[in-house]
Amino acid sequence: MTSNTLVCNAITLKGSVDIITEFFDYGINSILYQRGLYPSDRFIHSQKYGLTLLMSIDDQLKEYLSVMLNQMKTFMLTKSVHKMVLVIINVETHETVERWEFLIDCDKTITESDSKSVDHKEIQKGIRDVIRQITASVTFLPLLEGKFSFDLLLFTDKDTDLPSALWSDSNPHLIPNAEEVELRSFSTAVHKVNALVSYKNCE
Amino acid sequence: MQSNQDFRSRLPLPKSVFKSAIARPSLQTSTAPSGVPPLRTSSSASQSCVKPTLKVLSTNSVQTALRLRPHPYLSSHVRPTFSSRHAMTVKSIGLVPAVSPQVVTRLDFDVENNRESLLSSPQDMNRCLTDKRLSSKTSPAVDWNSLSKEAEVIALKTQITKLETLLDEMKLKNSQICIDYDLKIEKLTTESERHQNKCLDFEKQMKAFELKSEESSDQLLNAREEFGREYEKYEKRINELTKTVMDLTNQLSDNEVAIDSVEATHQSQMVAVEHQMKALESKVIELSEEKEFFVKHIQQLESDAKDREQLDAELKSAKVNICLLNEELKSYKDGVKLSDILENELQELRQLREQNVELIRSNQLLTDVHSKNLVLEEKLIALETQLNERNNRLKGVMETDLEVNELRKRLSEWQELLANDSPIDVHKHLSNVQNNEIILRSELASLKTQFDDMMSKREQLESDLMTTRNELLEQNESIKKLNRKCLLFTKEKESYKSLINSYEHDVTLDWNKVSKDRISSLEALVDDYRNFVEQLETEIKVLKNGEESEECQHRIKELENSFNKIKEMKEHQISPESEPMDTNCAPPREPTAAVSYRIIHFNQNPIAVNIAKHNEDFKRLVEENQRLQNRVLVLETGSDADVTQKCDEGIKNSQELEKLQKKLVSAEKSQQKIIDAFKRTSKEFREVCYRLTGFRIDLLKQNTYRLAHMYADSPDDVLMFESDGTDRTIKMLENQYSNKLQESVQTYLTAHDSFPAFLASLTLELFHKQTIV
């Protein structure tokens, strides 16, 4: 996957998609660990982007994330996905308390065979900064007390078909009177990812 | 000084000294550096004769002279030279103390020698005195006393200074010696303390050893006691054995006595039997043999006794040896025990020492470790504080980074917005925009005032409109009333005309024409009434909808349009205020494009799974709760049946009950809804029918209907009808009211069998009755 970019200092659409999905994998695991949605003993340390990141060993979670990321990859190759949102919802009250938005801007002109020159280290640095900000965001995000779980929403084009019968439409799970904090962004020259977290104002 | 005086009294000066002193009367006192004092005069005659005027020499010369003087014991007595003698005299008088004591002693000895020599020549002494007198008489006028005194003073002063220096030196030496002694004392005290501690330790050890010795002595005493006891035992045994030996000896003696007695008897027998010698020689031989046997036996017994004695002696010796061996054994055992104990104790001591050493080492290590730990803890605290500071700094840095990123984004956005424009251009543009804004605000204010005016005008117009409406309504109503009246009048007129015509025609009565005319007129009347009813209905609808006049509508539309325009202008003016003025604000985010996107998610997502689990848990808990409640109820009833089965049945029943209740409730609700809807529709239908036909039809019993007219005089004026469901035939039932309407019954029902005509005629009659009056 990443060998496309590492060897030639050039990146293709597929390589960019792989990098973005890998980032989402690590980013989502980091968010789940930082927000305490899963017990900390269900995470193991792994080195990536020059950081020590925590990845879940829960089989159900891993299976779910693999399904989501694979589908996201196909959507990104067809340039039909524009946003990926991780919503944290209270199990008892069904109330959305947090929304982690990842806006994906794709270069529409690029094709599968095209490649662009890019510095891989810059991409790594950008991803590292975003993940560090995700880790640091724990300081201002409110404490989640109670039973919470999450869901991943994909914002696709209107004319996009559902991949299978296991998929369905969903509402955006917006939070009224939410506090928003914009995080850093990074770019792979093909895709640009902007991160944003909005949370319920407890006051 | 007294000693010096005594010394002076003892010492006679030599002749040569006096000679030299006399020869040189004009001696002057030379001020020596040390200040040798001049000679002093004494009261005694010996001293006066001895005191010549001498040359006061310097101390150095005196010292050198003294040095040159040999030891009196080593060398023969030699008359000293002048200088040495002078030094001696000077010394004898008590001058020049800066001379070593050894030299002084030597001088004393020499002085004594000289004294002897001097005393041996009193003539010389007298000669000296006479010479002195002569000198004093013959010398010029010189204050020798003062000079001598001065010389003495100077010499004393020098002596004092010397003594002082000596004293200082001695003091220094003394102080040094004191310091050294103090140090030595301290050392000695420390050593003494050490020795004392050692002594204490040794005393402790001694005490311990004493204790041990006491213990060992106690043990020894115990051992001795045991030894004594065993000795006593053995003595007892020995005594017993001796007793047995005694007994044995007694037995032996007894045996011997017995043997003697036997011999005596034998002898008596022999004597008695001598007579029987011959006859009894054989017996004698036998007896001798027996005697020999007995002798042998005795010998054997003796040998046995000897053996016994030997054995006893051996026994004794053996016993003694045994005792000794036992004692040795005991001592060995004791020694072994003691050695074991002591070895154990020594080993324990060694172990204790080793443990002590180890403990000391470990203690030192622990103290080192503790100190290191303290240092490390301090470092840790410092590092933690540094870490906290750095974390805070990092947070601040991250926040600043966030701010910087935001600012950069804003800057980039601004740059994108501004493109190639310079800040001055932007400023100009902003100033222009501000000016435009001011203008727009003023326009807005004016428009607001206009709007307010328009609103007030609108309100006025609305009020006018309401009044006009009311007036219109009143007018319409009045018009309607008048029209009705007109119609009524016309109808009355026509009816009167018709009556007249009928009356006229009564003469020439043509029932067909009359009826036709009547019918046509009635039909026309009905049509008019229908049209009138329709008009009224339309007017009612219009009134309900609240149609306004065209002018008011137009005016209202204009006002609404202007109001909307003002609103748009206001919003448009407000929005530019926010954009350029506050450059620090973040640019407005694009609206969420949820409308333009399709939001999809995986059905088997964690939240759905968790919600399902939560619901299942909830249901399970509810079921369990119900089960437990039923169980409680069953247990409270106290039946002997199977509790669990009853509980399950109870749960099932309760669940079915709940379901049935829910169904019942839903069914009841739906039924109620249907009933309400039916009632509503039926009510509306009946109301409409009543209004249109004028008759209220009520179903009293099965197939019996009651009709009550709108214009009936009394509520009791009702008609009863009966229908046959199978044939669909309707019959009118007779009652008081129907009896009053016999004419119309006959004309319409009996003649023409038409219920509608009958009912219509009835309505007309009643209407006429109501209106005409």
From TrEMBL, chain A:
Pfam families: HORMA (PF02301). Gene3D superfamilies: HORMA domain. One of its GO terms (cellular component) is mitotic spindle assembly checkpoint MAD1-MAD2 complex. The keyword Cell cycle applies. One of its GO terms (biological process) is cell division. Its main location: nucleus. PROSITE patterns: HORMA. Signal peptide: none annotated. Belongs to the MAD2 family. PANTHER family: MITOTIC SPINDLE ASSEMBLY CHECKPOINT PROTEIN MAD2, MITOTIC SPINDLE ASSEMBLY CHECKPOINT PROTEIN MAD2A. This is Mitotic spindle assembly checkpoint protein MAD2A. It comes from Oppiella nova.
Automatic annotation (TrEMBL), chain B:
It comes from the Eukaryota. The keyword Nucleus applies. Residues 153-417, 444-485, 519-569 form a coiled coil. One of its GO terms (cellular component) is mitotic spindle. InterPro entries: Mad1. It holds the Pfam family MAD. Its main location: nucleus. Keywords: Cell cycle, Cell division, Coiled coil, Mitosis, Nucleus. GO terms for biological process: attachment of mitotic spindle microtubules to kinetochore; cell division; mitotic spindle assembly checkpoint signaling. Residues 22-47 are annotated as: Disordered. Signal peptide: none annotated. Belongs to the MAD1 family. This is Mitotic spindle assembly checkpoint protein MAD1. It comes from Oppiella nova.
